[in-house]
């Protein structure tokens, strides 16, 4: 897979190193000469250019990329890069960094963004995820389809504890993608039984989040106990 990353700061370089380690081709683009640190990510391609300029993106051959990541520290730049990548070059997957949570509402398909990653929001979500049981935590937003990656830790009093995945009437427009149980990561087969303390990760439409939370957190009545 070929990936172009706009922004060769600490965030961009870290992403590049991870992708290279996983066997992908990576191009780092930055207009600041001081950001071009080839020795830090020697296996990447480097381009000293303004990622907001069509001529620069032509030089980067963006039409060959499977993914573009707008990872600069400037939300305006990230939006422009995302829009150009999607509309001018037809890049299949565009991921954008959101620096200011107040701007998060802009990072949607209208600006060419498929996935918006807000570091402050993600960090607060991970804190919530670590301390909350029974509460739905939104980890990541996908622009297309108005879907989110959400997490909920199944509380001991949930009526679903001990119930098989295939026997649960899940809300429409939701999909259970992973069960984290202790140190294990489980694929949620229909025969797998849910256990109290399971961390459940879903891709769910935003309109179904409240319904999903109610389903997973529902308490057994005294008659059912």
Automatic annotation (TrEMBL):
InterPro entries noted in UniProt: K_uptake_TrkA (IPR006036), NAD(P)-bd_dom_sf (IPR036291), RCK_C (IPR006037), RCK_C_sf (IPR036721), RCK_N (IPR003148), Trk_Ktr_HKT_K-transport (IPR050721)
Keyword tags: Ion channel, Ion transport, NAD, Potassium, Potassium transport, Transport
A Pfam family reported for this protein in Swiss-Prot or TrEMBL: TrkA_N
Ranges for domain RCK C-terminal: 137-218
Source superkingdom: Bacteria
GO term, biological process aspect, one: monoatomic ion transmembrane transport
The UniProt record lists the keyword Iron: no
Domain RCK N-terminal: 1-117
UniProt name for this protein: Trk system potassium uptake protein TrkA
Organism encoding this protein: Streptomyces sindenensis
